[in-house]
Amino acid sequence: MSAQKADDKLKKKLKNFFDKNASLKKRWTSLISYVERATADELNKFFNENFYMIYGVFLDTFSAYEANCKKSKHSTREIEDILMILKNVLIHLAELIRRKWQTRSIATILLKVLCKENKMSVRVLGFELLLMFLEAVGVPEPSQVELFASAIDLSPFQTAYSQITLRNQPVSAPDKQSVLLPSSGSQNGEQQAVQLFDILLEYVSQKPSNFEFWFDLIKEQYFTAFYPEVCKSIGLLKDDNTGFKPYCPHQLQAVLISKLKVWMKNDQIVSVLWSKEDNVQIMLEIYRQSCRLSIQCDETIKEGIDVFKSLFWSSSVHADIKERIIEYRKFFMQQLKTVFTSSTPQGLEDTHIAVCKGVLELIKQLFLDLYENLADETRDNIMYTVLSTTTSLLDGTGNKVLADNLASLVLDAVLFMWIRTKTRKEELWDALQEGIFGLFHFMEPITQCKLKIIQLTWIIRQMMYPVKQKKKKPVKREGQAGKGDPSKTAISLSPDSVSQLQPCPADPKISGLNWTVDDLVFVWTKVLHIFGKVNTIKDPKIHAKGIGVLTDVIAILLQAENAIPYEMTQDTSLPEQLPLIDIFGTWLFEACGISGSYIQGKAAALGALCSLVVRHSPNRIPLHLLTRFYEVIHKSFKEHSNSIVSYSILTKSNNIFSLALPGASVLAPHYLAEIKIVLDNAAKPAPPKDVRTKSILIAASLLCYPQHFSSLPVPGEPGSSSNMRFSGLKAELKNLFIDTANNDPLPEHKIMCIWALCNMVFEDLLHDPSKSLVTDIIKVIMSFCTSSAAGVARAALDSLSTITLRFEDLRLLDASLIVHIIDSMCGNIKNSIETIKVNPSKDLEEQIAAHFYCLLDFLMASTVYPFDDTKMASTVFGAIELGLLGQKLKLEPVSLAKIKEEKKMKRMSVRDPPTASNDRPTNLNELLDNLRVRPLHNSDVVKEAANILLVQLCNFLQNFPCKSGIEILSSLVQENDDVEEDESVPLYYIYNDFALFSLVEIPLEDGDSMARVIMRDATGKYAWDARINYDHLNNGIEPPCSLLKPALPPPPFPELDEAVAIERDEGAPPQFLEGKGDENQDQLEALMMYLSEFDDCLPESKRMLNSPATPRRSFASDLEQAHLGIQQQYEDEVRMVEAMQEERPSSTRWTVTPPDPPEPNGAHHYSRLFLNHFGYLTFDNKSSFHMVENTQRFQRSVVQLDKTSGREMLKIGVIFVTQGQDDQKVILRNDQKSPLYAEFVRGIGWPIDIASHRGYLGGLDPHLTTGTTAPYYANAIMEVVFHEITSMPTNPSDPQQIHKKRHVGNDIVHIIYSEHSSDYDPTTITSQFNDAHIIVYPLPNGLYRIQIYRKENVPLFGPLLHGMCVNKKLLPILVRQTAINANRYVRYNTGGYSRPFPTRRRALDEIVERFKEVRPYEDLIGQLIAVGRSEGGEEDGGGH
Q: Cα 1000–1003–1007 angle (5° rounding)?
């Protein structure tokens, strides 16, 4: 269809409309039909050409509808058509309306449409038409304005307010008949009002060009009701009693805020809103009330804040706003405060909290993002606002729910802002300090302040306390696992060690600030001074919390001070360190003086004060501060004995006497008095372990004081008349350690006390020894030798072994005490062995073994032969026998006749003689057989220890050191010494499976030979040279008889004395004379004569008993014939000899001459003779004597055996640190000794010439690349080489000094002699092997301070304890012994370690097992007597 046809068709629809004779209904229907189908242009033309007729039909139709309404005839369709035509009138005839055409009529119709009784859809349409009408009018009349003001019914909101009136009343129908389209059912008046208000604002939003008209209209007619107070202030409202007070209904506020968000995007609208003051005030009030909305309107609140945030804080602020931006921003921040102060409806706590968190985050974000562009006034205003918000929220009178949940956030925000500004305005900092401190009535403010001050402190530490990073190379300890091995990460610790503080999680908003040292220190100081009045806090717990913050800061900075390299402290370009005692001293001293219930804070303050004062630092504490410190300590001990206050002092000042602080000795009696209370087992409640540990260490640090300051008076309480000297403290210390050792339940504390008592013995023996004191101490130590705690027993036995270093002093003091010690140990061994027979225990076995080793130390240390005392010998060897066999060996007594019988049997037969008993050994072979089997106590550990003691005594008692030098324990002679190659093959044999013997034929210069015997057992190797000696000529001694001199005549036989007759009377028994000559009396003759006087005693012949017997007749005849025959034979022989002499004349020459010595052809001639002469080749010994298979494998095993020392070999690093040295590279370059250090080194051992030394070198190079001399120490059971770095040459071209590091880096124990003004760090020498460190510091009072560091897996060792003070004479001895014990403890705790004796024993057993030959006795003898060598070049007998 063409456009023309469509237009024509459309116009046809108006035919009835233009027909004036047609009915109103037809005309109206025709009009509606056309309007619905026509285009905008067609309508515009149509309305402008026919406005009069259109309006007439419209008005008549409306009147007709009104008439029907009176008849209760209502039509939604009809009223909607009416309003549609009216809308087109307003659209297309706006110019006529602006000229007041039909305005009153239209207003009247709209008034009827807007009646609140009408259906809401009609009212909405009518309200939209009203807006169009007013805009068309341009300048509405008052009645029209009033209609606008009454169009939205605000009365439903009145119920939420008390006693308020509204200036404009809603449009209402005069009666029911006047209602155009009644609403069905009840309607929500508030929702209707909100809907209409939303329509109004939406309409206005679409008319930016006419926005000012509409905003003024809304402002005057509605905002005066919404915001009466501000409207009154700007002159829009004069009636004080109208409008919603104090706040606009939140539903309407929500609508307004949502539309503001749209409006602010239009510059034209923004200009209208912010160009007039009254508009500005309205806008600010809208924002103000948005912040004051109930939390139920959380979304509106957030939206309102967001709207005004975009206005005031955007990067491109509108020009009209920018002029007063500071004012607006201030207002914005101030109103945010009300979000935190509003009440929280029940059930909406989380919502309120979430809103507040969002606001806080917004403020912080704005502060961060715009900080650089903010004016100082704005910045300050924000800070004050946040501070005010914080204090009002947390002062205890505000919203508790919010306070509990937001405290951390608001405090974080306010503190961050002050830190961020780095402001130097004192008034700002004063406000912060006063405001935050005023909140110290609960914990959270302190917690948040702590977080910030700790964060700043860590930044200070990083910027002002630089630490030189140490590069650690991973070192794999031989024999240990790899990655999972905990020893790789273990570090040495001391009782003073504290875990390294870990930096708090970094807040990038703070750490990321561009800090300078000056700004950082200033801000840190100001934040710290929030705690300026900490000692005025009323709540003791909060006070303790506040003091705790200060102590935490002190701890961080103290660790920083200790870690800073010395060279950096001398660098003037680096920031100066903070004077900690000056900064914190006032607060801490004040806290120490608080009385009452502030005990926790006082304890923390005292601990921090002790940490600041009692430390090894180059910064000396002024004497006046020390004096005040001593007073505080004394007073605290007196007022708070056995409390956390005294505990804090003891744990934080355990070095007070070992640092030689000026005048610190005045506190000695006070410390001792408190320590007695703390260590008293009856103290309730029991003090913590750490407190008791530190108490023992403090007491141990005083051990030297009684002798070193013997004449110094001990200060007492003021007014006391005590004249006690320091020498009097000796008994107190002794009793303290004895009581603690006996009563303290912890083994660690018992061990510490035992070592302390050991040091007391050393100290006392050095000076004027007290017999009773030494005896009491040693008896106490001995009482712990059988402790059920393995570590305690070990410490006690090691202490006794250590005391042997002063053996001679102890013997001179009381020799009987040594006997008592040995007897007690033997008794302990006996009792313990009986125990393990019944109840086996590994710990008890080790304890018994330790007893044997302790006995060895005592017996070897004896300066007199210990076994002159037969009782002692019996006791010791009885204990050894028990250790070897598990019982006393009992040999059955054998009669003399039985012994003769056995000897006869041996001569007549080669069979073994019968034994005296089948179940008990009666000779050495059987004893050795018993040793080969398992002893009755079933413990190899005990047997081994007893065996060590036995062989050590047999080999080395009064035979050590040998004349060749103490470094030689085993012979250095080898089988091939003094023998040309292939000249003599050694003869090896094993005896009793216990020892390996070798015999070598050694040619002598005179052409003769000798047998060299080399014996190897579990203790070492020993060589003897054996030569047959018949005439002593080899020794230059004349023989007693020779062919060159006549022999001496034999002595005459003694003349026999004649028998002396015994005179007696007949019938009387003989009387024997006593005295001279009684041996010649013939007593038998006298007795026989006496008995012959009795007939019953005579024979049948009645001959006297003393008469010679008469032979029988037959026998007498035979005897006579035999005599005659012999006589004849003799005469015949004489005649024959005479005839022979006549035939052979006599000669003057000797016909018999002695034979020449034969030339021995046997390869083992002299060895055979040696073995035979000493009884080894008897048939009885065939089971004990075995040859070996002499192969290359055997020779390698012998070489390896010879490399296995019979003594423990220890190497210990000795490091010298001078003033200002704390770097490994610098320390290792030391090649000079200070006088004191040189004296110390001379005391730990004696020098050896490395090139010629024949003992243990500990890896030092005999070619002198590691120096020419080294300190060395040895005794019968150990050798110690000290890797002393100043004795090693320094390589100028090697900054690492690898050749030094190679040795000390691999030592288990380091001895460090430090003259540096700060404590030595055990990680200075980087290594995985340094398990223990013994550090020595010379003190100005002539004593030496000791520090002990050990890894966690290293048991507590002694004799020196951490913190002890030692005098110069005892220092090297005790340091050396402590290092030796430390080395041993580490080794014994290392898996797979074995002592030298069992190591050699196992090596020998392996040789016996692998190379022993079981051969017939005939083969053995045959080999020994074999002649020469075989044709093949080998010895007869297979080369054995």
A: 150
